[in-house]
Amino acid sequence: MSSKNRSFTAGLMGSLDAAAPQPEAPTRMPVGILASRENRMAELASGAVVGRAIEQVDPARCRLWSEHNRDYAALDETRCADLIESFKAQGRQEVPAIVRRVRGVPDIEFEVICGARRHWTVTWLRAHNYTDFRFLVEVRDLNDEEAFRISDLENRAREDLSDIERARDYLKALGRHYGGRQKDMAGRLNVSEAWLSRYLDLARLPGDLVAAFADPHELKIKHVTQLKPLLKPDDRARRVLAEAGVIANQKGEGTPLKPQDVIRRLAAAADAPKKSGSPKKSGKAPAEVVSSPSGRPLFRVEAKGKKEVNVTLLLQAGGSRADAERAFGGLLARFWLQDGAETV
């Protein structure tokens, strides 16, 4: 074959080879994606990262855990205003609540461990023309003690959870999960025993005393150091609780008392029997505190025999001069008549 024919044949074969279908090269993922997936699988296998299920559910199919530290009944549009506006602006709930599955309960699938305000907010929005909202949850497998610690960690730094809510939660958990051993509980929560003690003292305040405050959620840890000494010994505690009952019955009359005003009245009642000078005589009426219509202390009145009455003006208790003048007129009329003298 001539060189010309060989050249033609080679060219023809080259053209046929080029026209023939070529096998596809295997599709490869970018190295970065493969490495990322491999790293994720390694983390999951080692336990460094735990895969958890995130679901969007109907809030009506969720119930609050019985040990949840949020006072759910106290939630309203004011206490959840920030979440309502945030959910509306985002069009959804961004941060999932922590839940665990419930089995064997009709119509209930989940128990809310953390996220009562988020649950309330989604429920409220669905009832107010935002029916497309769903409750975003992260499902975990937890026992009760683990659930308590997770709930505490999530809510410990939240300002919208009141001290008394947290305190009551700690007191319940002390018996349920730690056998009443405060040291064990402090260790599991990674807090000092002294820090925990202050919360437990707040939770142990008598209900009658707490009822004297216009809003129990305003009671703070700092108030415990002022209130706890008022309850010892027993006779002092009786006077304090009696005054607390008077204050509670005056709720709704005038401006609500601030916590510090309530504490001043309770302290005045606790100290009422203290006398200076002559020794205590039998049959003497105990001192009393005269208050304004709004409940602010005005005078401490101590009858000393039949011919003498000591009146101490309580200048720092918040009462007005007009209230004091009216109350003093009532004192004059009352004691003047008791002494049997003629009125003028």
Bin the helical content.
Answer: 40-55%
Helix and strand element order: HHEEHEEHEHHHHHHHHEEEH
Which structural class fits the helix and strand makeup? alpha/beta
Which band does the percent of strand residues land in? 5-15%
Q: Ranges with pLDDT <50 over ≥5 residues?
A: 7-16, 23-37, 43-50, 338-344
Q: Mind telling me the C-alpha Rg?
A: 36 Å
Tally of strands: 8
**Count of helices?**
13
The major beta sheet can be summarized as: 5 strands, mixed
The coarse silhouette is elongated
Distance between the termini: 154 Å
Overall mean pLDDT? 80
Strand order of the largest sheet: 1-5-3-4-2
Explain what this protein looks like in three dimensions:
The chain has 344 residues and is of the alpha/beta class. The protein is built from 13 helices and 8 strands. The chain has helices at 3-19, 31-46, 81-90, 116-127, 144-155, 163-178, 182-189, 193-203, 207-210, 221-227, 234-249, 259-271, 321-338, and strands at residues 53-57, 62-64, 97-101, 110-114, 135-139, 288-291, 297-303, 309-313. It has a 5-stranded mixed beta sheet. Strand 7 and strand 8 form a beta hairpin. Helix 6 crosses helix 8 (193-203) and helix 11 (234-249) packs across helix 12. It is elongated, with a radius of gyration of 36 Å. Residues 7-16, 23-37, 43-50 and 338-344 have low confidence and may be disordered.
